[in-house]
Structures
1.
Amino acid sequence: MKRLLLLGLTLCLLSACAMGKGELLPKLVRGPGASAALLRCTAVFPQGRWQFVHAIAFRLADGTSGNALGVLVLNGREIKSALMTVEGLTLFEARSSEAGELEVLRALPPFDNREFAGGLMRDVRTLFQPPPGLGQYGTLADGNPVCRYNAGQELTDILPREDGCWQLHTYSEQTSLRTDGCQPADPRREQRRTRTVNARSCGQVGSVILPHTLELTGSGPAGYTLNLRLVSAEPLPASP
Amino acid sequence: MRAPTFLGLLLGLLLGTTPVWGNPTVNPSVRLRSVQANFTQEKHLKILARPLVSQGIFAFQTPQSLRWEYLRPLHSILLLHEGQMRKLIEREGGFEQDNGAGIDAMRVVLQDIGSWLDGRFTDNPLFQVTRAGERTVVLTPKEQGLQAVISRIELQLGPEEGVMEQVTIFEGPESFTQLRFTNTVLNREIPAETFTQP
């Protein structure tokens, strides 16, 4: 049970607590052909109805690590998700409607709190759904193409690659601290990186390209890494 | 109260293929020394469009040696031998050690395993044991805390003495795990490396 607690705390950290001194939001130079480019960026996410199973390995900054199974049923913006031990005990089961209303169906301690549920769904949306907000297309200083989505409190950059894989960064507004940890007299608000997703080993599954590995890294002192290895991907028939 | 965990319960049930709790007509002097079987595990959840199917093998030998191995879709092995236990997960062509919840589950198994092998499964104070048919046994948790994890367990005994056909563990109304066992072999000597090597 102690290790379950650790897993719970870890996963809470993943979504809620990993604020820190991430990299600053890079400058985007707007480019032509934004509409088509933005479509290419959102196309990296699975469309339609899918059931995914991932083997999840997590690692904290202090070296603590563990494993779990993640089950995900996607139907457009609707998400159903479960977290299980490798042996199949359901630790957490919930669904989030298209409107984002969260319903927790089962949550064993220490997963039985709203922060965990909300954070888990937020990470799932980051990994598997196009980001909300208005999109812009352009290039970064290094010339790499980028799609930037501004949802007010959070900015998301998607960097698609030629092989169908991609990288994603999220940024949120944070207040600058002095090196001693205190706020300066005139604190600056700036967009800093909070999470990075690397989609790797992308391959054809049916008619779509899916990453075999997704690695989500939370920035800052409470940093963490979530490694999702695709175990199965099943396209589901359209809803009746 | 000791909190039995999923694999602990599961193995406990499986290793309880001894006469007393399974079939009152069998000879209680027959003691289980080893069990080997294949299993298919189906996980049903309310949110799932299709159940998750896993397949694996297990081997147990007295006094406390165990190999519980999922072959697919995720290759993982739990090994127990001479007090040493480890859990391994295959990743990128090799095995890496997992320090997750399964290890805790096995500590529970070890605590109860002696009782089960002696056919004293009903000694476990956590469950109410009832018969729901000639070859069906239902275990219901007595305590509320355990009921939140598992609502009931149904055991389907085989026609052959000492053989379990199926175990269904109900977590809730639409959530259950069903294990079906095949090719069960009893009391055949199993080499020690089965319990030490991936």
2.
Amino acid sequence: MNYQAIRAAYEAPIATACAALSPAVPVFFDNLAASTLTSTSEYVMVNITFGLTTEVALKADFDYVRGAIICRIHTPKGKGSVRNQTIVAAITGAFQTLNATPRAAGAGVYARVNQIDGPTFDAPVDLPHYIGRFSCGFIASVYP
Amino acid sequence: MAKDLKFLVKDLKAETIRAAQTACVEIMNGLVKAGPGYSGEFSSAWYALPRGDSPGGPRSRSGLYKYDLRNVPAARFETSGMWYTIVNGAPHADVAMDLTPYVYEEFSGDAIKKQTRGFRLKNATRGDLSGTSGPNTRTAPEDWWPTYNVGGALSKDLARGFRTGFGKATGFS
């Protein structure tokens, strides 16, 4: 089982989509210390979790892994929702592109996301950010 | 002895309701297992309801709650064409499910689930801890809720519940 390759299959499109925005927005993935967490600047937190990872599939020549991707988009509070929603749209657009990409021949990770739940938005009273949040399930097949 | 076919529709309806009840019980017990546990309050506040109905509050504060069919009355499933949801009615449910940033809540005593320690930065959610030691704790991993929902555990519990609930729909000729 190659969890790192599965992570990379999802993290790379997210990082690329956020880097392509103007201005680019920093993305922090699991277990990477984010020095900007308490600042008022914008950033994206992405959490990739694994659910069932040893599920038996009809064929035995690949690993079949399920999990969840949770994205939290932090933008400055009191400045409207446009920027937050622009970032959400960039990431969900990257997921749609991922879903439309055919499986490459040979070894590798064939990554797909399921339906997206959200986004929901929250502006906590004592925090400096307006937070957009969405999540989706993923299914990855790893071909040796 | 084989049953007359004229009872099939009535029995199937009863079995469908039973299967829905059993599936809800399996799912709610799965959520208890997957979710956090300090006093047990959050674990006891899951409700299976028609969509839009408000849940009640926590049922207990003494350990992890164990759901059974009495928590999911059959009468709740007798209306056809209805969507059902499983929701948590604890006052701090959004925080416990990592849907909103963590808000400090006084808790004394021992947590009923194993705690892991770390640092929780301001703005972070309940489960978002850095490091392996620190003043903050959690008893379930970050984002356990979407992981349970879409990571495969929900569909597994749902399937097991339905299989168990439908187990008695036999005997027709």
3.
Amino acid sequence: MARYLLRRLLLTVPVLLGVATLVFALIHLVPGDPAQAMLGDGASQEEIIKLRQSLGLDRPLLSQYKSFLSGVARGDLGRSFRNNAPVTAQIRERFPNTAMLALAAMLFAMLFAIPLGIVAAVYKGRVVDHAAMTLALVGISMPNFWLGPLLAILFSVQLGWLPVSGTGSLAHLVLPAVTLGAALSAILARMTRASVLEELRELYVLAARARGLSGSRAVLRHAFRNSLIPIVTIIGLQFGAVLTGTIITETIFAWPGVGRLLIQAINFRDYPLIQGCILFISVTYVAMNLLTDLTYGYLDPRIRFE
Amino acid sequence: MVRVGLAIVLAAFIAAVLGPVISPYDSSAQELSRRLEAPTLAHPFGLDELGRDILARILDGARISLMVGVAVVSVSSTLGMFFGAVAGYFGGRVDDVISRVIDVLMPFPGILLAIALVAVLGPGLTNVVLALSVIGWVGYARLVRGQALRAREFEFVQAARALGASSARIVVRHVLPTALPSVVVQATLGMAGAIIAEAALSFLGLGVQPPTPSWGSMLDAGRSHLFDAPHLTVIPGIAIALLVLGFNFLGDGLRDRIDPKTVR
């Protein structure tokens, strides 16, 4: 396991370097002068020169790249152009909200989709199965930037049960979490159904039934437990989609997380903050993928020896 | 499934082309006194926040969605086929370089990269297509590389080489055609992906800019009127979901026909 861990960690280094390089390159892709773009047309030549200096844009590219990488390594992502606050501090302040939203979405998906998938598998071909799978298809086809407002119309405007946006209570978390978790639920329900169906065909399930185990016990104790590995993998792999989904979900529900911070930074052309948010989301994403791989390697020893 | 998908997709193309014939209204003509009016016989989808006919805007939006989809799929599949075929057929150092780039980009969340690119390049139709193509080619490249690796060993490819055909000719005439069916499936599903991504970017204000109608920016405008005019949110969403479902049905159906092994 130690060798697998080391190899997997080493493989992550070039990916992280690639991500950092990409993020560094972003500000140089701005058409024209980034300092001019940030300050707008009314800026004086002096102001532009000063901003260029403070962003380090007046130095040679290689030296800029080196100081960017060393800054990233130290957790220093520069200062926001708009309010001069350190980018890292702003992200640190918002991240707990994003993490809470993402975790709530994944929890919702698991609690909703896994039982749905199991029931669909057990009652394959019956009405329940068709209804569950139609629901899953709808979940996959509905973009979250439509589902969110629709849920808000139904549960906030029509029924008045939940707040439309903002934070402050558990009720505020419900609509964003459901919106963000819907696509994952759909995928997870389909995956669970397929995985449990496969296990149900195995002889050990038949043997369990022959020993007199009740149907639900055979399903839950035997078939479901064995179908867990692909389910865990899907949850891990889909984390990236959930993480990037927060950008849209947070914007819909005015949820003060890193995703909304990114969109606000884009609207203000706050390039250091844009770079910081993109880097942070990407690195979190890479780290989660690594964690999924390691967990998978731990659960299934065959993976380690590939 | 293929038929349902094909019917939806064809209907969307026809609606996009015949837009002005179907709806008598101009998508940018404003009737401010009747803003946010709910659907009526004269305006079956109602009027938006500036009193514009939503049906006309949906039809114009279909043209934008399909245009972005076709452009992104054309650019990214061409790039992907080129790099994939070169990597798979020639192997060695070239393959190493291309494969590393694929390895770094493949697991990267596409929409995040697209947001990052549009954030610095500026919003607009061209930049959206560019950003989505920059990430889109990777999937095609990986697919075609795999096919090219296999095709290299086929007897008819070796025969062509023995007959003295140039590498370019072998790749274009013999290697790429073996990958084409999979590319077509990927492209169909890619249309759905590109349409959703464009709508998402426009929803965030990073895509097509007003007054050009885009389904994504129509949904964004609807957000301010959840209470007084929910039809602004409901209708563009149905359009997006339906078209995406159409392409997904078509893609899945084609895949099942091309490769019966994947039938569930």
4.
Amino acid sequence: MGTIDLDKSDSNFLEELADQPEAAMIKACFTCRTCVAGCPISAVNKAFSPARIIRMALLGLKDVVLKSDFLWLCSTCYTCQERCPQGVRITDFMTLLKNMAIREGFAPSGIRAQLKLVTGDGRIYPIDDFDNKKRTKAGLPVLPTSCEDIKKLFQGTNG
Amino acid sequence: MKYAFFLGCTIPARARNYELSARKVAETLGIDLIDVDRFMCCGFPIKAADRHAATLMAAFNLAVAGEKGLDVCSLCSSCASQLAEASHHLSLDDAEKARVNERLLAAGLAYNEAPRVRHFARVLFEEVGAEAIKTHFKKDLGGLRIAVHYGCHYLKPSSIHDRFDDVEDPTSIESLVALTGAKLVDYSGKKRCCGGPVLPVDEKLALSVAKEKLDSLAEAGANALCLVCPFCSVMYDGNQKGIESEFGVSYNLPVLYLTQVLGLAMGLDRKELGLNMNVVKTKELLEGIAE
């Protein structure tokens, strides 16, 4: 892992984060690295460090964080958030950063496709007649093959 | 005991063994699980992309259950967590609640008093209770050495699950498995994540996370793994062969849902419990159960 390049700092980033409850406590981080010690991803990939992501955000490195591949490696297991002695909502903060990355157009294509699928069909694995046939054979009830309500919820939004 | 049965997306399409065994166990214990056709995805899969849209979908499902006057029971840890988290969040954020209600209006619904959200395992642990469950047992599973994987969202974040079990030293699922007479196997890394959420982003990394646990289980001498989430099952059961070939290792470790373990102790038929649909074959393991 290389050094952090402060020339890429964006002084407005912290202000942007200040409005978000998920980021409320990040300034309290004193880099004890309890989050790294318990992280199942850090355990197998040293390049991933929640503490480093928080530090980068605090230094205003907006583009570096939002464009990074490592942001998407967080498995949202909440171990860090449960253990943080400073009450930083680390997992929720990661989710906030991922949401910001999507808005800035940096998200992996799979994440975007998933959003389109779920807000279009109402399910991540839409049920078809073939599924229902298998369900009936197994003695399980038939499920609806379409979802009208999802259209109503997201009508006129980009969601 | 009556709940709106929240199946979610993964279970009805990919984990019918879990659904079958849970329905059988619920029926045996007299838990009424009501199917609700109007339920949609809980919102969890889109949280990374848009947490507000995810909250809206969760709120829709809660409003549907609320309209029927039913609390919600889910087999999937991610669904249970997503629904409980949305309910917790909306109880604290009036502005978001107002935005949610504006959208729900289009579907003829309103989000008011949120119903309670419970994972099925928590219902068994807290509401049905050990004594009542035990009265339905017909077989002793003493021949099995079972390790338990709690997974993440069954217990965490603890603030939304009322801290019903200790996140750092959980016992709820093991206490249910212990009722069957099976020997509990403790192992290092018990609380570790399965790695599942990273699968679409970095497959090899996700498989390495799962491999750590399989290694630890082999070392501890477990002959089965018991869990309560379809995503975790994808990692340990569905992807076990893939991990074996990717890393040149061999486990052949059967992975059972808690409902399958309890169902076996209840003397339910193996097919009724969907054991024929488990990816790692359970035949040899089940020979260890006395008839």
